[in-house]
Amino acid sequence: MEGVYVSEHPLVRHKLTLLRNSETNSTQFRELVRELAILLCYEATRDLVLAAKTVQTPLGPAEGAELREAIGLVPILRAGLGMVNGVWEMMPSSEVWHIGLYRDEKTMRPVQYYNKLPIEPRVQVCLILDPMLATGGSAVATTTLLKKWGARRIKFVGLIAAPEGIKAMRDAHPDVPIHVAAVDDHLNDNAFIVPGLGDAGDRQFGTG
Ligand code: PRP
């Protein structure tokens, strides 16, 4: 589907399988979320704009490049937190903005409880980080908030999506590319992705 990028990298497929396994403990789970986030953001940032830059090596000038765009990492709390650190180490000049949302268990709609955006957007590209794209409510609400606030280029980076979540994002925000490790079969009656991996927040933070 246009605008939806499902990684076929062998490392991603291997690590995602470990992540899904219910025998994976929370220490291993956190490490896998961190590694998968790095791999997926690596793929999602392949179109970042560069400026030419020449440096002097010990043997003379070398033509090179440097990133021209500033990047904002936007984890959706809680589960998105585990996707931040590894990506931040790769792009240390990024800014990190936290958005707190939880899904109301009855309505399945996202409820915002925290938002720490700077007054003015200072970056050219925002990467929304959330392991799960289930109904899509959280990702749609976060994207709407970022756009209202003035962000122009936004990408969603997740681990597992349901077809329902992808459709909701494509309908509401067709300009936002979606990068994930897998698109699963369906949502169950509790809006959990099947087969999925369970609750990404609880498995990371040991609160299940
Ligand atoms: C989960 C997940 C996403 C959201 C996805 O968060 O981490 O943020 O649900 O669902 P949606 O696509 O239907 O909106 P949850 O509400 O469990 O909060 P948590 O991250 O704090 O555990």
Q: Could you report the average pLDDT, rounded to the nearest whole number?
A: 95
Summarize the main sheet. Answer: 8 strands, mixed
Order of helices and strands: EHHEEEHEEEEEHEEHEEEEH
Which band does the percent of strand residues land in?
25-35%
Oligomer: single chain
Distance between the termini: 34 Å
Describe this structure in words.
This protein has 208 residues and is α/β, with parallel strands linked by helices. Helix content is 32%, strand content 30%. The chain has helices at 10-20, 26-44, 84-90, 137-149, 163-172, 200-205; strands spanning 4-6, 50-57, 60-67, 71-77, 95-96, 99-103, 110-115, 125-129, 132-133, 153-157, 160-161, 178-180, 182-183, 186-187, 193-194. Strands 1, 4, 5, 6, 7, 8, 10 and 12 form an eight-stranded mixed beta sheet that branches. Strands 9-11-13 form a three-stranded parallel beta sheet. A two-stranded antiparallel ribbon has the order 2-3. α3 (84-90) links the parallel β4 (71-77) and β5. The radius of gyration is 18 Å and the shape is globular. The mean pLDDT is 95. It binds 1-O-pyrophosphono-5-O-phosphono-alpha-D-ribofuranose. 1-O-pyrophosphono-5-O-phosphono-alpha-D-ribofuranose (PRP) binds at residues 76-79, 102-103, 110, 130-139, 165, 191, 199-201.
